Amino acid sequence: MSERDEPLDLGQTEFTTAEEDQLRREHDLDRPAVFDDRNAVGERAQSRSELLPEEEAGGSADPEAQAREVLRDSDLRTEVPESAPDTFIERRRSDETT
Questions:
Q1: Burial status of residue 36 (CB atoms within 10 A of its CB: 0-12, 13-18, 19 or more)
Q2: Which domain of life is it from (predicted)?
Q3: Which of 38, 68, 90, 93 holds its CA 20 to 30 A away from the CA of 77?
């Protein structure tokens, strides 16, 4: 199975099996090539694979693959915010203090 054939991982969520199955269908999570094409992941990864000077010190075996995975993760979290249960947006009213 190639990298583009692996289903995308939602991580640990509180979705029921039926909810996760529906999300997987709606967002092409079991068809990563379709997900990538829809989100132009390949093209975007090419333009983001050049390492910054501070990243060059650590190096990367495959900067384009690394960029592709970061973009996939970002796109997935954008499309399905609940896929990152350990992150959340805290909303406060303007009259509240910290």
A1: buried
A2: Bacteria
A3: 93
